[in-house]
Amino acid sequence: MQLEGLFDLPNLAGWVEIFVLAAMFYYVFRLFKGTRGAAILTGLIILYGSLYALTIITHLEILNWLLSKLMLYLSLAFVVIFQPEIRRVLSKLGRQPIWRSNGTTSQINLVEPLMQTVQLLSKRKIGALIAIEREIGTRTIQDSGTRLNSVVSAELLSTLFFPHTPLHDGGVIISGDRVCAAGCLFPLSQKEELSKTLGTRHRAAIGITEETDAIVVVVSEETGAVSVAYNGRLRRGLEDARLRRVLTSMLRRERTGLARFREKIKDGEADLSDAVLMTFTEEQDEG
Fold it and tell me: How far apart are CA 87 and CA 145, in angstroms?
């Protein structure tokens, strides 16, 4: 009889609430893992939890009442302190399939000019930072640079990053088949686990992909190595052949990479380039 009572409607609602709260707390901790906010969040939880538990055990009613009233102000402080993390999760929610359009325009025609640009700049060890906009807009970041609205070409991209030119210090944003802006300031990633060898250019590449679904190509000024950033992750030291496969896979897709890959597996059409794409789009192994 007791076991049957566990599945009564009121009890079932309680279990659902517990499950939802547990899922929320898990997602919050997973979101803050590896960020500067993780230590702050842990400290706040330990401090507030310890004080609140102490007031209950020792029956300090006035102090308990004061801590309860402070919850409102702590909520406001939470929004201010963890603004980057909150903005990142909201942008991720906006990328989920339920809010997505049926497809994004294929940008496969960008592969050749990008490859030619990267090969030239890498050979000469000229730093470059090129972001290809997808579904999430980058207008705010574009406003930090100079508007161009020019046709994408290897000659134009190479010229923009040539040393001592007015727009070489910053990032370039491509939207559709047009170079929208150059000399843009990308947000820097705040992840603490990033390698200390990563410079500002690579951190900026990761930073913009944490806030948008852009694909970013980076050329190192020190080594000439080529990297690709997507979804807050960075793949370094890509050779020409592998870089071409990655760009082709990512720029030709018309749906979410994971959904497209699963469809190809079902149809028996998946290849190496799609597997490379999966290393960027899957986030499960991050947890």
Answer: 22
